[in-house]
Specification:
Layout (H helix, E strand, L loop, with lengths): L9 E4 L15 H14 L3 E5 L5 H13 L11 E7 L2 H11 L5 E8 L2 H8 L3 H18 L3 E6 L6 H13 L4 E6 L6 H14 L7 E6 L6 H10 L4 E4 L13 H10 L1 H4 L10 H12 L16 E2 L2 H9 L18 E2 L7 H10 L6 H17 L5 H12 L7 E8 L7 E7 L5 E7 L3 H13 L3 E10 L8 E9 L17 E8 L2 H20 L12 E3 L1
Parallel strand pairs: 1-2, 1-8, 2-3, 3-4, 4-5, 5-6, 6-7, 7-8, 9-10, 13-17
Antiparallel strand pairs: 11-12, 12-13, 14-15, 15-16
The structure holds acetyl coenzyme *A and 3-methyl-2-oxobutanoic acid (KIV).
3-methyl-2-oxobutanoic acid (KIV) binds next to strand 5 and strand 6.
Length: 544
C-alpha cells in the first residue's frame, strides 16, 4: 500500500486510548465496549481500544472489544482493533494478547525521537533509539502483520533523524508510520512540510501508510491534520469531540466534515456515516462527563442555531446563506432560530406564525417593541414568553388592584409571613396576612387571599439590573389562569390555558415580586371580565 495510492482517508479513532487520557475521562469496560460498537457502526476504520499494559482492566477492555467488535457475524469487514505499546517486549506482548482475537489486529508501538524527550525522559542516545525501534518493531511484526510505529514528539524532532528512524521502522515491518505532533507545537504549513519531507526522504516509504496524530495545544489540531492529509498522509488519528491529553486531540467530526464539505478542494473521502456524529458526541460526553462547549464546531449546541436578526432573515430566505452544512448530515436536529435581543421582525413573525398567530403589520410592530424590551432582560425568548406577550398585547395592563402596602417577617427564627394591603378598583383597602415557604411565597398567598382568583405560577425570574447594595431588583412572573381557555381570536388552540406576564421593579425584591404578581393577576382579571371588587375581600384576617 503506498502513501498516496488512493483518495480514501482511513479514520483511526483513539477516543478509547488518547481520549481516555483526558483528566477525569475514565470509562468503564462496559462503556468502552458500547463506544467501540458505536464507532464501528459509524464506519471508523481503526479503533485504538486502549493501552493494554496500563492495567489488567485496560487489557481486559481491549480484549473484549477485539472479541466482540473486531469480528463480524454478518460477513461485513470489521474495524481493525489496535492496542498501544511502548517499545518494550512486555507492553507489546500485552497489546498482542489483547488484540489477537480480532479478525484484523494491530499493534501500535511508539518511541520519542525529539532531542528533549530522548535526553531527559528516555535518557537514550539517538543510536539507542534507532536500535530500540529496530528491535521492538521487528518483535511486534513477529507477532502481528499489521504494525504501526509512532516517533513520539515528531513535531519537534530533527527531520533528518526522523527519516532515518522511520526508514528503520519500515525495514523492521511497520506498515503504518504515524507522525504525532505530540505537544501541538507545529503550524499547519510546518506540519504539512514535515509530512512532505517524510514522504520524499524516508527509505521504503511507499510500503507504508502515513498517518497524522495532532494535539490541540494551540487550537491547530484540525488545521494541522488537514495540512498533513493534503501533503499525502492517508490516515488521520482523531477522537470524538476532540477529547484527549491536555487541550485534546484532533476532533473526528471536524476532520470528516472538512473533507466532506470542501471535497472539491481535497478530493478525499472517508468511510464515515456522518449522520452518526452527533449521537456519538453525546454518548462520549455522557460517558466521560466532559461537556461539549456550545460553540464547538459540528457538535456544539449552537452549531446550527442562529440568533442575529440579519442571519435569521437570511436563513428564512435560503438556508445556505448562513449554513455550510445541513444539520441532518451530522445527525443534529433541524436548524434553530433562537429568539433573543439580536433577532429581527422576520424571525419573530415566522415563530409567531408557527405558533398559530397571524399578526397584522401594526400588531407585529407593537409585538416587536415588547419583544425587544423583554429580550433586553431575558437571554432567550421562549414560545411561552411569546404567548404571554401576545396576551399582554391584547389585554393592555389595566390596574384593577394596586399594592398599597407590604410588610414581611422572615429569617431563620420563625415562619415567613407577609401582610399586604391592596386597593380595589373602588378604592377600598383590603388587608391579608399569610405564611409561606418564604417571604415571596407568603406575599403571593396574601395577594391571592384578597383577590381570590385561581391561577398557577408558571415562571418567576429575578434579575439585578444595577450593581451594588442598592441594586434595583426586577422580577418577571408568568401566571396561567386555571380553567381559563383562550378565546382571543389569535390563539391556535381554543382550549389552551392563557398565560399572563407581569413585571415589577423595586430595590426590595419582595416588593418587586408582589408588584409583578399583581400586574399579571390584574391582566388575567381584565381578560376574564372580572372587573369588580372581590366578593369576600376580608380585612385583617390571618390566613394559613
Ligand atoms: C504521547 C502519549 O500519549 S504516550 C501514551 C501515554 N499514556 C499513558 O502513559 C497511559 C498508560 N500508562 C501507564 O499506565 C503507565 O505509565 C505504565 C504502566 C505504562 C508505565 O508505568 P511505570 O512503569 O510506573 O512508568 P512511568 O509511567 O512512571 O514512567 C514511564 C517509563 O517508561 C519509559 N518510556 C516512556 N515512553 C517509552 C517508550 N515509548 N518506550 C519505552 N519506554 C518508554 C520512560 O522513560 C519511563 O521509564 P523509566 O521508568 O525507566 O524512567
Ligand atoms: C502514542 C502517540 C501516537 C501519541 O499519542 C502522541 O504522540 O501524542
Amino acid at each position: 500500500m503506498s502513501t498516496a495510492d488512493n483518495n480514501r482517508v482511513r479514520i483511526f479513532d483513539t477516543t478509547l486510548r488518547d481520549g481516555e487520557q483526558s483528566p477525569g475521562a475514565t470509562m468503564t469496560s462496559a462503556e468502552k465496549l458500547e463506544v467501540a460498537r458505536g464507532l464501528a457502526r459509524m464506519g471508523v476504520d481503526i479503533i485504538e481500544a486502549g493501552f493494554p499494559a496500563a492495567s489488567p482492566d485496560d487489557l481486559e477492555a481491549v480484549r473484549k472489544i477485539a472479541d466482540e467488535v473486531g469480528n463480524s457475524a454478518d460477513g461485513s469487514t470489521p474495524p481493525v482493533i489496535c492496542g498501544l505499546a511502548r517499545c518494550s517486549k512486555n507492553d507489546i506482548d500485552k497489546a498482542w494478547e489483547a488484540v489477537k482475537s480480532a479478525a484484523r489486529p494491530r499493534i501500535h508501538t511508539f518511541l520519542a525521537t525529539s532531542d528533549i524527550h530522548m535526553e531527559y525522559k528516555l535518557k537514550m542516545t539517538r543510536e539507542q533509539v534507532v536500535e530500540k525501534v529496530r528491535d521492538m518493531v521487528s518483535y511486534a511484526h513477529s507477532l502481528c502483520d499489521d504494525v504501526e510505529f509512532s516517533p513520539e514528539d515528531a513535531g519537534r524532532s530533527d527531520p533528518q533523524f526522523l527519516y532515518k528512524v522511520l526508514g528503520v521502522a519500515i525495514q523492521s515491518g511497520a506498515t503504518t508510520l504515524n507522525i504525532p505532533d505530540t505537544v501541538g507545537y507545529t503550524m499547519p504549513a510546518e506540519f504539512g512540510a514535515l509530512i512532505s519531507g517524510i514522504i520524499q526522504n524516508t527509505p521504503g516509504v511507499e510500503k507504508a501508510v502515513i498517518s497524522v496524530h495532532c494535539h490541540n495545544d494551540l487550537g491547530l489540531a484540525t488545521a494541522n491534520t488537514i495540512a498533513g492529509l493534503q501533503a499525502g498522509a492517508r490516515q488521520a488519528e482523531v477522537t470524538i469531540n476532540g477529547i484527549g491529553e491536555r487541550a485534546g486531540n484532533t476532533a473526528l467530526e471536524e476532520v470528516v466534515m472538512v473533507l466532506q464539505t470542501r471535497e472539491p478542494i481535497f478530493k478525499l473521502t472517508t468511510g464515515i456515516d456522518t449522520t452518526q456524529i452527533v449521537k456519538m458526541s453525546k454518548l462520549i460526553s455522557n460517558y466521560t462527563g466532559i461537556t461539549v462547549q456550545p460553540n464547538k464546531a459540528i457538535v456544539g449546541a449552537n452549531a446550527f442555531a442562529h440568533e442575529a436578526g440579519i442571519h435569521q432573515d437570511g436563513m428564512l430566505k435560503n438556508q445556505q446563506t448562513y449554513e455550510i452544512m445541513r444539520p441532518e448530515s451530522v445527525g443534529a436536529s433541524l436548524s434553530k432560530l433562537v429568539l433573543g435581543k439580536h433577532s429581527g421582525k422576520h424571525a419573530l413573525k415566522t415563530r409567531l406564525e408557527s405558533l398559530g398567530y397571524e399578526l397584522g403589520d401594526d400588531e407585529l410592530v407593537k409585538m416587536f417593541e415588547r419583544f425587544k424590551m423583554l429580550a433586553d432582560k431575558k437571554k432567550m425568548i421562549t414560545d411561552a414568553d411569546l404567548e404571554a406577550l401576545v396576551s399582554d398585547e391584547l389585554y393592555q395592563p389595566r390596574e384593577l388592584y394596586s399594592l398599597d402596602g407590604l410588610q414581611v417577617a422572615c429569617g431563620t427564627m420563625g415562619m415567613p409571613t407577609a401582610t399586604v394591603r391592596l386597593r380595589d378598583p373602588e378604592g377600598e383597602l383590603h388587608v391579608q396576612a399569610c405564611v409561606g415557604t418564604g417571604p415571596v411565597d407568603a406575599a403571593f398567598k396574601a395577594i391571592n387571599a384578597v383577590i381570590q382568583f385561581q391561577n398557577s405560577l408558571q415562571e418567576f425570574v429575578v434579575h439585578a439590573v444595577t450593581e451594588g447594595i442598592d441594586a434595583l431588583g426586577e422580577v418577571t412572573v408568568r401566571l396561567q389562569g386555571e380553567g381559563e381557555t383562550a378565546n382571543v381570536g389569535l390563539q391556535p388552540d381554543q382550549n389552551q390555558p392563557r398565560t399572563f406576564g407581569g413585571y415589577g421593579a423595586d430595590t426590595d425584591i419582595v416588593v418587586a415580586s408582589a408588584k409583578a404578581y399583581l400586574s399579571a393577576l390584574n391582566k388575567m382579571l381584565v381578560a376574564s371580565g372580572h372587573y369588580g371588587p372581590p366578593e369576600k375581600a376580608s380585612t385583617e384576617a390571618i390566613v394559613y
